[in-house]
Design brief:
GO terms for molecular function: ATP binding; phosphoribosylaminoimidazolesuccinocarboxamide synthase activity. This protein is an alpha+beta fold. It contains 6 helices and 14 strands. Helix 1 packs parallel to helix 6.
């Protein structure tokens, strides 16, 4: 295969030019970061698991009519995706208080919220991805009012889907973040779910024990991150029930 041109490298993924115009290849790394990359490590097998889990979620969303950038999984670590213009916002949906919300508002972690709360953060690592309001978003032209209406609708549809999928396998969807991209069909613009959906971008707790099955395992030194992600993949049927934690890429094709 010809050497691909790297477009961008982030904390957990590398983007390459795709084989056709309007496509990109998304490569999942084993790097784990927390606290705005102040804590770093390489977790063997993490990228393989996130690739498969993100494929599972994106495919499920497409089946219920939620548009995404995902086209197909290429191999253990790579996906072919539609190229899009990323809106510079992290869209966070919270069902239970946790993490920064608990710290900011003094709400005990695990408290169920009266309804799903959608928050927005400006995507800028140097600034620590600060929380912003719709007023900031409109004033600085990051998204129009119509965009914001569409983003809110997409975020809540994703929440409904993920909550149901997780509930069915005994997992509580505490919160998650997504990114939204713009694609153009001629003069017509539409918004799609982009980036990834994986335990890296969700808080997932076992409904009976409260055990954390997401990146908080790494953030808070609660155990082995690959074991936690493998458990999520097993429950969802992405991995066989008897699968061992991934330490070699040959375990998933």
């Amino acid at each position: 295969m010809a050497r691909r041109k790297k477009i961008y490298e982030g904390k957990a993924k590398i983007l390459y030019e795709g084989p056709e115009p309007g496509t990109i290849v998304q490569y999942f790394k084993d790097d784990a970061t927390a606290f705005n990359a102040q804590k770093k490590d390489v977790i063997e097998g993490k990228g393989v698991l996130n690739n498969r889990l993100s494929e599972f979620f994106m495919t499920g969303l497409a089946q219920i009519g939620v548009p995404t950038h995902f086209i197909k999984r290429i191999n253990m670590r790579e996906q072919l995706c539609r190229s899009c213009e990323i809106i510079p916002l992290e869209v966070i949906v919270r069902n239970y208080a946790a993490g920064s919300m608990s710290t900011r508002l003094g709400i005990e972690e695990g408290t169920q919220l009266p309804r799903p709360i959608v928050e927005y953060c400006y995507k800028d690592d140097a600034l620590g991805d600060p929380l912003v309001t719709e007023e900031h978003i409109a004033a600085f032209g990051w998204a129009s009012q119509q965009d914001m209406d569409d983003i809110l609708s997409l975020a809540l549809r994703v929440n409904d889907f993920l909550s149901g999928v997780m509930l069915a396998v005994g997992i509580k969807l505490v919160d998650f973040k997504i990114e939204i991209g713009r694609v153009y069909d001629g003069d017509f613009q539409r918004l799609i779910v982009a980036d990834e959906i994986s335990p890296d971008s969700c808080r997932l707790w076992d409904m009976e024990t409260g055990q954390k099955l997401d990146k908080d395992v790494f953030r808070r030194d609660l155990g082995n991150l690959t074991d936690a992600y493998t458990e999520v993949a097993r429950r969802l049927g992405v991995l066989p029930k008897n699968a061992s934690p991934i330490t070699k890429p040959t375990l998933i094709n």
